[in-house]
Design a protein that fits this description.
Elements: E1 2-6, E2 17-23, H1 36-42, E3 53-58, E4 61-69, H2 76-92, E5 97-101, H3 108-121, H4 132-135, E6 142-146, H5 152-173, H6 181-194, E7 198-203, H7 205-210, H8 214-220, E8 228-234, E9 240-254, H9 274-288, E10 293-304, E11 315-318, E12 324-327, H10 334-347, E13 352-357, H11 361-367, E14 372-376, H12 379-392, E15 396-398, H13 403-408, E16 416-417, H14 426-438, E17 443-447, H15 469-479
Parallel strand pairs: 1-6, 2-4, 2-5, 5-6, 9-10, 9-13, 12-16, 13-17, 14-15
Antiparallel strand pairs: 3-4, 7-8, 8-10, 11-12, 14-17
The structure holds ligand BES, manganese (II) ion and zinc ion (ZN).
């Protein structure tokens, strides 16, 4: 879908369908055919109630009037939701070129929300559908965003973000027998090829072992499928600010290993690479936006499954930083992978760390699909990450770190255990485990297990959500002082 901004009036654009938002207590700003749209509102067929839709024909075009609710309650997220509702209706009526007439005096992020909602809602995963009907190209080919003032920057930024988010969703939706760790590595190499200031390296089992990443390697020893340590750098010449490391968990399938998961929901564990997928999508967008920042991305990717040499509960492994870890539950594998990825990022000079992972079922219970959990060892860095969450609409709820929780991940036979015997506060145990590898580098840990897929939002109802892409880009943008 092409996306562009214009200062032309919607009637003068080549659009066949125009979307107009209506706030409570407001009139139609620019009417056509001598008041056709206001008449629809006066008749009660169109309503300002949030998400209410009405369709009419006037001035040779189709018009979709959508309620935007109370102006004061309006947010970029509401823009995404309204745009997704309009997208669904425009699809039903076969729209090819859609023009969104923006309400007056929006903020740039609210304006961008209309673009994001449309592009995100248009995402479909059809790679494995063989029937033509499912595979046919979508009818919507262009989105034009009309406003009195130029919205080129906001509209382009939003399109870049939403496309990167959709790229992450596609990685998430691909099954584990297709999206192997090395296939994820291919994505990173392609990204580096496409962007001048991005470099990528993909290392396999031998290098992971050679680097002394004993925790990561222990997870990977349970599969014959090659694991991948994916390292990217984005450093344009004008880059400024600290070296920010984005560290992602990319377990392409998590069976639980010998501490095996129940069968009923195991198929969803193809999504256990969501954190790593978000990191790659974010790097794509950061490079496309040419943000003047220094980014290091580390994605640890492997399956967690059971061949004859799989790690066993009780095994003791040595992580890259020298700490020994008792693997008391092979299903607490994400922290083993991330532990060594955090050490690797620090060894490469990371000055700020943010890791993103589908780490625990406990965070799903606690926060559902509304907030991701966040932990941090540094107030200033927490503030930056939290602000990025608020700006992007990918909201975070802080959970505590505390020496009393940290005590719980001390091992009986080794320095640490990857899983205390009882599951009390287990999202916090996971965070305290990672804390030991982040050390005193400013670090934030995002547990996205509840927000990674099946959001139930109109712009992403089922499947991968791409959560984290917009947040990480907003974080990078703030580091650039933009
Ligand atoms: N990938 C899972 C976490 C998960 C669970 C994500 C449900 C999304 C939905 C992770 O590797 C895991 O299995 N965590 C365990 C940790 C426990 C053994 C300490 C969990 O949450 O049960
Ligand atoms: Mn697990
Ligand atoms: Zn997992």
């Amino acid at each position: 879908m092409l996306v562009r901004a214009t200062v032309e009036a919607p009637v003068d654009t080549p659009a066949d369908t125009v979307a107009v938002g209506i706030f409570e207590g407001k009139r139609i700003p620019h009417d056509v055919d001598g008041g056709a749209l206001q008449a629809l509102l006066d008749a009660g067929e169109a309503k300002p109630a949030f998400k209410h839709l009405a369709v009419t024909h006037a001035a040779g075009k189709r018009w979709i009037l959508v309620g935007l609710g109370d102006r004061d309650a309006f947010t970029a997220e509401r823009a995404r939701v309204a745009a997704a509702a309009v997208h669904a209706r425009s699809k039903e009526i076969g729209t090819a070129v859609l023009c969104w007439e923006l309400p007056h005096r929006l903020g740039d992020d609210e304006a961008g929300g209309f673009v994001e909602g449309t592009v995100l809602a248009s995402y479909r995963f059809t790679a494995f559908k063989t029937d033509d009907a499912a595979r046919t190209a979508p009818t919507l080919t262009e989105l034009i965003v009309s406003d009195h003032e130029s919205r080129v920057v906001a509209v382009d930024r939003a399109a870049v973000l939403a496309r990167a988010q959709n790229a992450t969703r596609e990685l998430q939706d691909r099954p584990a027998n297709d999206l192997t760790p090395m296939a994820l590595g291919e994505f990173a190499l392609t990204l580096a090829d496409a962007h001048e200031h991005v470099t990528a390296s993909v290392e396999g089992r031998a290098e992971i072992v050679a680097r002394g990443m004993g925790a990561f390697a222990a997870v990977a020893q349970g599969t014959d499928v090659e694991p991948a340590l994916i390292t990217l750098r984005y450093e344009p010449p004008e880059a400024r600010g600290p070296l920010v490391a984005l560290v992602g968990k990319a377990v392409t399938h998590d069976t639980g290993g010998l501490s095996i998961k129940p069968a009923g929901s195991m198929h969803r564990m193809k999504f256990d690479m969501s954190g790593g997928g978000a990191v790659l999508g974010a790097v794509q967008a950061i490079a496309q936006l040419a943000l003047p920042v220094r980014i290091l991305a580390v994605v640890g990717s492997t399956e967690n499954t059971i061949n004859g040499s799989a790690m066993k509960p009780g095994d003791i492994v040595t992580a890259m930083n020298g700490l020994t870890v008792e693997v008391d539950n092979t299903d607490a594998e994400g922290r083993l992978v991330l532990a060594d990825c955090l050490t690797h990022a620090r060894a490469l000079g990371a000055e700020r760390l943010v890791d993103i992972a589908t780490l625990t079922g406990g965070v799903v219970t606690a926060l559902g699909s509304t907030y991701a959990g966040v932990f941090a060892n540094d107030e200033e860095w927490f503030g930056a990450v939290d602000a990025a969450g608020a700006r992007s609409g990918e909201r975070l709820w802080r959970l505590p770190l505390d020496p009393e929780y940290a005590d719980r991940v001390k091992g009986r036979y080794a320095d640490l255990t990857n899983s205390p015997e009882d599951k009390k506060a287990h999202p916090i145990s996971g965070a305290e485990f990672l804390h030991r590898f982040a050390g005193d580098t400013p670090w934030a840990h995002l547990d996205i297990a509840g927000v990674g897929w099946d959001l139930g939002k109109p712009w992403a109802a089922k499947g991968g959500s791409g959560f984290g892409v917009r947040l990480l880009v907003a974080l990078a943008q703030a580091q650039a002082g933009a």
